[in-house]
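Whiteboard transcription, Tuesday session. T.W. wrote the C-alpha cells on the left side:
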C-alpha cells in the first residue's frame, strides 16, 4: 500500500471517501500478511481479549474478517458488521453461511438488541468518525453491564508527529480531519480520517459510560523482527496504534 497525505479543502464526502468496496481484495491481502495488521494490531487485540471461549463477541467494522476468524477459532461466538459489502463478501467466503455478518454503519443505530454481547472489538475503525459519541453509545447499549469494549486506533501522537513534520499541523490538542490517498492493487482511493488528542478519546469513553481499565502501546510480535526488520525497528521505537480495554458501567 502506498499512501500520500494532504489537507482537504472542505469536509469529507462520505460517498466519495473510505470506499473499501473499491479495493477490498487488495486491502484484505495486505491485512492478512503485512506487519501492521498480522504481526502487530491483530495479535495485540487478541492478547488484550485473552480467554474468549463461550463469550458473545461483536466485531465492529470487521472488514474481511481475520479477527473474527481468530476469535471464532478461540471459541468465541463471534459476529460482525461493516459498512462495506465487498469486505463482508470476503468475510462470508472465509467464515461460511452460518456466520452472523451484517451491513451496518457505526455511528448510527445498530441492528442488535440491548445487552447482546459480552465483548465488542472495534479494531482500527473509530478514527474514521468525527463524533465518537453516537458510536460509543450504541456499542455501550449492545454490551451487557460490565462487558468489554476493546479498541485500537491510529496513535494520536504518532499521527500528529507525522502531520507536524510535514508542516500541515502544529496543534496536538485540536481534533482535525485529514485525508490520504491509498493506492492498493493498482487503484487509488481517497481515505478520510479524524485525529484527536488522547484526552478527547478518554473523555469520549467516560462520557459514554465506559471505565478505562487498560491503555496499551504494544510492540509487534517477535516473529516480525526477521520478516520485517526495518518496520519492526520503527514500530518498536515509535508506535502506530493505541489500544484500550474499557468496561461498560
Ligand atoms: C482499517 S479496516 C479494519 C478492518 C478490521 N477491523 C481489521 O482490523 O482487520 C476498517 C474497516 O472499517 C470499516 N468502516 C469504516 N467506517 C465504518 C463505519 N462508519 N461503519 C462500519 N464500518 C466502517 C471499513 O469498511 C473497513 O472494513
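and on the right, the sequence the group agreed on:
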Amino acid at each position: 500500500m502506498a499512501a500520500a497525505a494532504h489537507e482537504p479543502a472542505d469536509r469529507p464526502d462520505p460517498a466519495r471517501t473510505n470506499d473499501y468496496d473499491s479495493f477490498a481484495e487488495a486491502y484484505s491481502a495486505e491485512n492478512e500478511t503485512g506487519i501492521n495488521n498480522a504481526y502487530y494490531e491483530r495479535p495485540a487485540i487478541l492478547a488484550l481479549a485473552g480467554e474468549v471461549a463461550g463469550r458473545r463477541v461483536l466485531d465492529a467494522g470487521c472488514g474481511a474478517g481475520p479477527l473474527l476468524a481468530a476469535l471464532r477459532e478461540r471459541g468465541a461466538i463471534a459476529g460482525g458488521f461493516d459498512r462495506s459489502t465487498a469486505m463482508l463478501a470476503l468475510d462470508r467466503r472465509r467464515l461460511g453461511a452460518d456466520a452472523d455478518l451484517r451491513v451496518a454503519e457505526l455511528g448510527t443505530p445498530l441492528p442488535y438488541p440491548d445487552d447482546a454481547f459480552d465483548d465488542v472489538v472495534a479494531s482500527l475503525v473509530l478514527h474514521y468518525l468525527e463524533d465518537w459519541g453516537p458510536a460509543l453509545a450504541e456499542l455501550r447499549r449492545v454490551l451487557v453491564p460490565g462487558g468489554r469494549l476493546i479498541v485500537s486506533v491510529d496513535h494520536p501522537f504518532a499521527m500528529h508527529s507525522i502531520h507536524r513534520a510535514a508542516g500541515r499541523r502544529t496543534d496536538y490538542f485540536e481534533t482535525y480531519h485529514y485525508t490520504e490517498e491509498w493506492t492498493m492493487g493498482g487503484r487509488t482511493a481517497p481515505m478520510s480520517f479524524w485525529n484527536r488528542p488522547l484526552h478527547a478519546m478518554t473523555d469520549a469513553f467516560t462520557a459514554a459510560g465506559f471505565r478505562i481499565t487498560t491503555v496499551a502501546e504494544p510492540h509487534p510480535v517477535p516473529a516480525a523482527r526477521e520478516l520485517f526488520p526495518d518496520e519492526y525497528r520503527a514500530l518498536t521505537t515509535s508506535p502506530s496504534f493505541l489500544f484500550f480495554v474499557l468496561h461498560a458501567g
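Someone added at the bottom: Residues 18, 20, 31, 37, 61-63, 66-67, 82-84, 87, 105-107, 123-125, 128 surround S-adenosylmethionine (CB under 6 Å).
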